[in-house]
Design brief:
The chain is α/β, with parallel strands linked by helices. It has 2 domains: 156 residues, 3-Layer(aba) Sandwich (Rossmann fold), CATH 3.40.50.720; 169 residues, Dihydrodipicolinate Reductase, domain 2 (2-Layer Sandwich). Helix content is 33%, strand content 25%. Helix 6 runs antiparallel to helix 10 and helix 8 packs across helix 10. Bound molecules: nicotinamide-adenine-dinucleotide (NAD).
């Protein structure tokens, strides 16, 4: 019989356990979505402990998900329970502290929610701790594990739109809380190519940058990402959550957050594009795919799809966009030189 990995959740809020209740009627989500629901659905993991600083919340969470060992101190949980897998589902201000402690105290795999953290200096510390201790890591950027977006990436790599030229994300949202999803998807759909530089406009004032600590999570109005090989990436603040990859012979659109694909290709004459039925695809739970991928990596000692280096890169892309706005929209080369630029709201 296959080994069962012990798991623990740190931070017993929405993403840990109640988000499925919030989005129950949504057609864009394939359940399970919450971390607790996903551990329950995964035959290879068992939840043994949870931690929250709020005692009432912790006990209600443990009762709902039948978790035997509640802790108000996450360090005690890790030291005593020595879980194989830990979910970090607190808000981003505490991610660095929890991930570094877990990595340094025997946890083998970490599923950390986005945004990774609040500065590149924090991201560097997390990468360093995970790599030094050989910890498997997946960031909670769900679409990276989505069967739809991974299939699109495969089709694009096979040349379904010819030679790739652009990736465009039509979606509005705040830079860290929301657009760490978008920056990761931009990377995924550009084949995780290196980024040469970024430029952006966000909803922050010059004064917000005064002490290198932006205490709002600004909206992203527009972002330009120059990938190596000359591929252009754009984030445009518009209605909905839709994506488009274009190439020399066609366009592939992902409609309504990946619920449908639309493929159009050159039919021959002129610049006319003709609709071609896209290959069929299956939609599965991205959260369960993410956890299964971590478990597989523990089994085999292999890598993960959303590893800590990629997590740092998607964080860096969006931090670069914010930094560019602070420099009146100047090009900002990556890796970002300003490792101490901190973006975080007071209640993070
Ligand atoms: N992947 C997604 O689609 C998705 C969706 C929603 C939220 N998120 C992410 O999940 C994270 C949590 O967001 P949320 O909306 O669930 O927040 P939340 O406020 O509902 O929950 C966070 C919980 O962490 C607890 N906490 C704070 N400090 C702690 C500590 N030191 N030790 C233990 N517990 C502590 C809080 O008391 C709270 O119960 C955020 O990073 C957010 O961006 C991801």
């Amino acid at each position: 019989m296959a080994h069962t990995y012990t798991a623990a959740i740190i931070g017993c809020g929405r993403m840990a356990g109640s988000i499925d209740d919030e989005v129950r009627g949504s057609s864009s989500v394939v359940f399970p979505y919450s971390h607790a629901g996903t551990y329950q659905a995964c035959p290879r993991t068992g939840l043994v402990a949870a931690s929250d600083v709020l005692e009432d919340k912790l006990h209600a969470f443990c009762q709902r998900w039948e978790i035997p060992n509640p802790y108000t101190n996450f360090r005690e949980l890790i030291d005593r329970e020595q879980p194989d897998v830990v979910s970090v589902t607190t808000r981003p201000g505490s991610h660095r502290e929890i991930v570094v402690y877990a990595a340094e105290h025997g946890v083998k795999a970490i599923w950390c929610e986005k945004p990774l953290c609040c500065s590149m200096a924090e991201a560097d510390a997390m990468v360093d701790a995970c790599e030094r201790h050989n910890v498997r890591f997946n960031l909670g950027v769900n679409r990276r594990y989505s069967s739809v977006y991974r299939e699109v990436r495969r089709l694009v790599a096979e040349g379904i739109v010819g030679e790739q030229r652009t990736v465009i994300g039509y979606c509005a949202g705040s830079a860290l809380w929301s657009h760490t999803h978008a920056s990761d998807l931009l990377l995924l759909l550009a084949g995780d190519r290196n980024v040469d530089y970024v430029q952006g406009t966000v909803g922050a004032d010059e004064a917000d940058f005064a002490d290198n600590h932006v205490d709002v999570d600004p909206s992203v109005d527009s972002a330009y990402v120059r990938f190596s090989g000359g591929i252009h990436g754009y984030l445009l603040a518009t209605l909905g959550y839709e994506w488009e990859v274009t190439g020399t012979t066609g366009k592939l659109r992902m409609l309504n957050d990946g619920q449908a694909l639309e493929l159009r290709r050159h039919g021959g004459a002129g610049k006319q594009l003709e609709v071609v039925p896209p290959p069929p695809f299956e939609r599965t739970s991205s959260a369960l795919n993410c956890l299964t991928n971590l478990v597989d990596a523990l089994d085999t000692g292999g890598g993960t799809q959303g590893n800590v280096q990629l997590a740092r890169r998607s964080q860096e892309l969006i931090m670069g966009v914010i930094a560019s706005h602070g420099l009146q929209g100047a090009r900002v080369a990556l890796p970002l030189a300003n490792r101490d630029l901190y973006v975080g709201k007071r209640d993070w």
